[in-house]
User: Which sequence fits this backbone?
């Protein structure tokens, strides 16, 4: 079987480096340092949504990047800042406002914003983003919906991002969203809308010039994948025009 070379000059991918090792194998990230991605020490911008043990954030901070760490559910006693790191009590989603998840059987509400709005609020509208880490299961679909369907121009200025892709296939519950048992032989085949939507988004990523750089299995339930897109000169011009356009 032919092996796919996805980053680096050999199948071992020497230009893939591990960031956040102290976060554990399920949360450490791979970063591609091939020259075309041009990640420069002391001149790079990183966003991290979902904090584990601050390993990923500290590694990029030490590398010299400006790091924005987002986690609306992180307890205050676990908040930690390095010299180049800023903590934001926010999540990323396809809308701006309040979101809700269930924690230990209780509803927990937290603030979310869109990537486009966040860049504008931080006065980073004309900046390229070297890396985005999205390490919050369940947030990937909303994030991709926003950057692919609402503001694709923003994603074109992101060099690399990592995201969790769940292996969600048809299940018995997909026959009926309310899980009502219906044994009628005339019912339609099961369709998992989340799986279908994610597959569509992966195709759109390809259409927007992204390629797979690395994939790490997370058991049998998901893969953590890194996508990359080499910046183009036309992207820079478009970015500068967007940054000075009033919202």
Assistant:
């Amino acid at each position: 079987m032919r092996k796919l070379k996805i980053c680096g000059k050999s199948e071992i991918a020497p230009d893939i480096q591990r960031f956040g090792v102290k976060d554990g194998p399920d949360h450490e990230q791979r970063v591609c340092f091939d020259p075309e991605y041009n990640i420069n020490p002391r001149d790079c911008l990183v966003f991290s949504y979902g904090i584990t043990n601050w390993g990923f954030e500290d590694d990029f901070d030490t590398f010299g990047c400006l790091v924005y760490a987002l986690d609306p559910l992180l307890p205050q006693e676990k908040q930690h800042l390095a010299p180049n790191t800023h903590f934001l009590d926010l999540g990323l989603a396809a809308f701006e406002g309040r979101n809700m998840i269930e924690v230990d059987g209780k509803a927990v509400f937290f603030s979310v914003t869109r990537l486009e709005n966040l860049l504008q609020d931080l006065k980073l509208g004309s900046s390229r983003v070297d890396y985005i880490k999205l390490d919050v299961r369940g947030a990937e679909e909303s994030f991709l919906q926003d950057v692919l369907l609402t503001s694709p121009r923003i994603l074109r200025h992101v060099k690399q991002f990592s995201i969790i892709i769940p292996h969600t296939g048809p299940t018995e519950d997909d026959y009926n969203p309310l899980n009502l048992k219906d044994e009628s032989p005339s019912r339609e085949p099961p369709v998992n809308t989340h799986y279908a939507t994610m597959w569509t988004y992966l195709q759109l990523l390809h259409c927007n010039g992204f390629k797979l750089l690395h994939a790490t299995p997370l058991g049998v339930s998901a893969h953590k994948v890194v996508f990359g897109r080499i910046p183009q000169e036309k992207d820079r011009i478009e970015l500068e025009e967007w940054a000075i356009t009033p919202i």
Q: What stands out?
A: The mean pLDDT is 81.
